[in-house]
Amino acid sequence: MAEIAVPKLNTNDDSYVLLAWLAPDGQAVPAGAPVAEVETSKAVEELTAAAGGVLRHRAAAGADITPGQVIALVDDLAAGPVEAPAPPPAGGPTITAPALARMAELGISAERVAALGRPIVRRADIDALTGAAPAPTASTASTVDTVDTASIVDTVDTVETVDTADTVDALGGPSAGLSRNQRAVARTVARSAATIPAAYTAMTVDVGAALERAPRLTREARRPVGLAELFVAAIGSAHATHPMCFARLDDDGVTLHPAGAAHVGVTVDLGEGLYVPVVRDADTATIGAIARTLTRHRVAAAGGTFRQADLDGANITLTLHLDAHVSLAVPIVFPGQTCAVAVTAPRPELYLDGDGRPATRTVTQVGLAYDHRVINGREAARFLTALAQTVKEP
Amino acid sequence: MRVADNINAALHSVLAGDERAYLIGEDLLDPYGGAFKVARGLSTRFPDRVLSTPISESAMTGVAAGLALAGDTAIVEYMFADFLTLGFDPLVNFAAKSVTMYGTRLPMRLIVRCPSGGGRGYGPTHSQTLTKHLIGVPGLAVFEMSPFRDAAEVFAEMLALAQPCVFVEDKILYTRRMHAVPHPFTASVRDGVAYVGTGEPPDLVLVAPGGTAGRAVAALHRLLIEDEIAGLLVVPSRLYPVSLDLPPVPHVVVAEDGTAGGTWGAEVAQHVHARHFADLAAPVTLVHAAGAVIPAAPHLEREVLVTAGTIYDAMVRTVRG
Amino acid sequence: MLPALVDAPDQVRADRAAMLLIRHFETALLDLFARGELSGTTHTCLGQEHVPVAVSGLLGPDDHVLSNHRGHGHYLARFDDPEGLLAEIMGRAGAVCHGVGGSQHIHRPGYLSTGVQGESLPVAAGLALHLRRHRPGALACVYIGDGSWGEGAVYEALNLAALWHLPLLVVVEHNGIAQSTPTGQAMAGTVAGRAAAFGLAHTRITGTDPAAIRAGLAPLVARVRAGEPLIAEFHVPRLGPHSKGDDTRPAEQVAALPDWYPALAAAAPELDRAQRDRVARVVADVSARPPAEWTDR
Q1: Is residue A353 within 8 Å of A177, Cβ to Cβ?
Q2: Domain CATH code at residue B165
Q3: Is B321–A273 a contact, with Cβ atoms under 8 angstroms apart?
Q4: Which of B63, B86, B97, B105 is the best mutation test for C, with the most CBs of C within 10 A?
Q5: Domain enclosing residue C211, as ranges
Q6: Domain total for chain B?
Q7: Among residues B220, B251, B227, B249, which one has the least CA distance to residue B319?
Q8: Contact at CB, B290 and A168, closer than 8 angstroms
Q9: Superkingdom of this entry's organism (chain C) (predicted)?
Q10: Element (H, E) at B11
């Protein structure tokens, strides 16, 4: 089998037009026969078959073709026709790279995707196709936070990432070292480590009922409701009974400022930098309102379009570590706050029920890092217990 | 249809439809038909009104201005836009100013066509895009050929202004096909501005003149495929005065072939900031060639000029921060 | 040589009246400048008045005139409108170009001046091209100085004019000095040699009698109308400064330059007085007008 590739016909064009096939698909052609007419910006050239055989078109008349592209195969007659691979279907959807990766991961065929009838197929469309956990936004493949204890960002510094006039020189290259976003993370983490004597308490929490409740809440809110939304709500409802967990300790180490409402910072990291946007008034907000706010934040994280107001004013932080195999995460405490709650991925667990019989349940490890100057282990445990209760039975 | 053929057809229709229209420039006569063959067939069809001049950019521009002054329609073809500097006085000091400097508005139907841009290895004095030097000249408008808009329409728009217009034509564009965009993008034109998008609400707007359109579309395609970010390409035919009405988007990037410093993009950014400030999450990002001469060797030329990769990188950086 | 009263006394009187009008107009401008009543700059044509007076007599209504920075005489010889010109220079109501163009940028149908040296020659070539097609027999007449020959655009345009057989009349007012630089320091060779290099007709004129000048030029200008461009080089004195108070030449050198005025004023004292009075009335009238308004932008 021989290939007919497009030669480089001049120096001005990087593509030509396949004007017409001079021999139809499937026709036997002798060696040296003209088979196609190719138009450059200056002239029309004929391409010939180098060897005789049956012509198999691999490009359509009228198509743009580039030098080096194989536009036809010539089957050797003596060897019998060779079944060439089918040409790619014309007019199929445009499938994004994240969507392709998801298809491969889930073993979904191109035909199934084409049957969606969408001109553009994104990762979220694949998720929807399989009923897998939907990506929270339509425009990005959202992966949730990895195990990263450096989960809090100075909000003021974060804004710099969207507030800089970028003039991009073709000669200019990226500077080496930490990204601007990560430099901000580094500053905050270092300040926390230097100024806050933090302690850590963790508790296993049964989230089975919560996860059963989530799909209904999602339908009602018309926004995704998952562990993030439920824990924001739980933290909010604990504000009244555990005000110290939301308080701010002055730099003098003595004066405490209680918080009038629960403003919960939530970590969002889509792989392009860590952000901690805030769900305001989580103590009074409905689960639907919380879901809407978090959806908006995720879209903003994908686009880097946060406003300053989105990032300001948290008095407690929720760090999410929902990747499948994360079992323990110790967050740092954001300077100016007292507590940071870490929630890890839910996992099945064997346990003994009230009758002493083995059973399974879905649990997650919920941790609390806290400023030991402000609260002690007893208050930490009571706070975690309150969260566990609310998540189980709001 | 190739872009060069589209411009050629537009010139044929202007000269056929207007007895007072001339085409003036160097090496225009058939069978040569101009250095980039855009004038093919015109001198044969309109021998009295296609004037092939000596190598005299100043004179050919001044002659055209004289014709325009007398009420004729004059179209000048520069062999390379770089040589505009040789015709700057008749264009800027005479033709453009004449529209208003005599106290009452004086119609001047004059179009100066400029094969611009690099990518062909012609080196520092045959590869430039001089748009920046033509911005802010009273009485002078700047347009650019785009593969998304019929040149005949743009010529009609320029002539209706009755003032001198520079028409930038990217040399690489000449051999490209008109109206070609890859799936799932489609192109549409509204009020003289071409929009290339997927039909979804865009996350980002990329403003680019016609000459960069091929690279801009390639960059947007990659942005969609790799990053699932929907971009809308906005290609105004009239580059100056700037007037753009963009959809509300948080990010705007401007890409052009001019060199760094005093760019057209800065003018666009100023316009967008003034008009769309409330929608923007960040200042407009400018993408342009390096502040360097344009080398002849292809690998060096690529380092200096704006590529699809340059535009893509800038868009990603803009959106991701 | 004075305009002589021979066969056409009306024409002679008109020539004399025009030359005197220009002289008194330019003198009045310098006076207004000295009194601080004019802003900007102006370039008077003292000593060169007879050139446009002679040339204008050879031009018809379809001909186009392109003037330069030293253009008051060109305008007044073409249009009997000292009011409009002075209003333009002073920025007053009734200005030819509403005060936008000023002394050096004036446009009326068939007439245009620009202040950039050499710029007008290619434009004149374009106008000549237009006239050849639409007004056969009409010509474009462009005034330049000896200093303009330093500009490349002049040569590009002359080349085209010769190649394309354009009806182009180039009037050179060779006054021997460009701003402060004597021609000898600015021009190698001669204007005649330049004309010869392009195969263009050239004639040299030294007199100041418009009728005599016209008699000599008429047959050559007729050939211009048939497509044979001409360079008519007038040797003239520049009696005034380049613009105002910037004459670097010794006073005695300027005083020794020939001037047609004393003899004409002696020969026609009443006409001289009449034109002086007319200019004085124009100055008084225009000075009293409100500022010009620029509305059609």
Answers
A1: no
A2: 3.40.50.970
A3: yes
A4: B63
A5: 9-287
A6: 2
A7: B251
A8: no
A9: Bacteria
A10: helix B3-17
In this structure, the answer to whether residues B27 and B112 fall within a common structural domain is: yes
C152-181 tens-digit pLDDT: 999 999 999 999 999 999 999 999 999 999
Contacts of residues C186-192 at CB distance under 8 Å and 24 or more positions apart, as own/partner, are C186/C146, C186/C147, C186/C149, C186/C150, C187/C146, C187/C149, C187/C150, C191/C146, C191/C149, C191/C231, C191/C233, C192/C233
Which among A11, A96, A167 has the least Cβ separation from residue B228? A96
Are B94 and C125 a contacting pair at CB < 8 A? no
Pick from B154, B175, B196: which residue ends a domain? B175
- Please state, for a pLDDT cut of 90, what percent of chain A lies above it: 29
Q: How many structural domains does chain C have?
A: 1
In this structure, is residue C81 part of a structural domain? yes
Mean pLDDT for the stretch of residues A272-285: 88
B229 touches chain A (CB under 8 A): yes
Of A151-155, A234-238, B173-177, C214-218, the one with minimum mean pLDDT is A151-155
First-to-last CA distance in chain C? Answer: 47
Q: Does the beta-carbon distance from C126 to B65 stay under 8 Å?
A: yes
Name the residue with tokens 């995460």: A329
Chains A and C touch (3+ CB pairs under 8 A): no
In which region does residue C102 sit, left (phi positive, over 0), alpha (psi from -120 to 50) or beta (all else)? left
Per-residue pLDDT of chain B (321 residues), as tens digits, is 899 999 999 999 999 999 999 999 999 999 999 999 999 999 999 999 999 999 999 999 999 999 999 999 999 999 999 999 999 999 999 999 999 999 999 999 999 999 999 998 999 999 999 999 999 999 999 999 999 999 999 999 999 999 999 999 999 999 999 999 998 999 999 999 999 999 999 999 999 999 999 999 999 999 999 899 999 999 999 999 999 999 999 999 999 999 999 999 999 999 999 999 999 999 999 999 999 999 999 999 999 999 999 999 999 999 987
Q: Chain-wide mean pLDDT for chain A?
A: 79
Instruction: Specify the fold of A2-75.
Output: OB fold (Dihydrolipoamide Acetyltransferase, E2P) (2.40.50)
Q: What fold does the segment set A155-162+179-392 form as a domain? A: Chloramphenicol Acetyltransferase (3.30.559)
**C294 inside domain:** no
- Select the residue from C129, C131, C148 to test the B interface by mutation, using most B Cβ atoms within 10 A: C129
Q: Which residue has the tokens 């039909």?
A: B199
Q: Enumerate residues 6+ apart whose C-beta is below 8 A from C95.
A: B103, C84, C87, C88, C292
* Surface of A (177-196) touching B: CB under 8 A: 180-181
Q: State which residue of chain A sits closest to B286, comparing Cα positions.
A: A167
Distance between CA atoms of C261 and C242, rounded to whole angstroms? 19
Above 60 in pLDDT, residue C89? yes
B and C: number of Cβ contacts within 8 A: 118
**What CATH number does the domain containing B269 carry?**
3.40.50.920
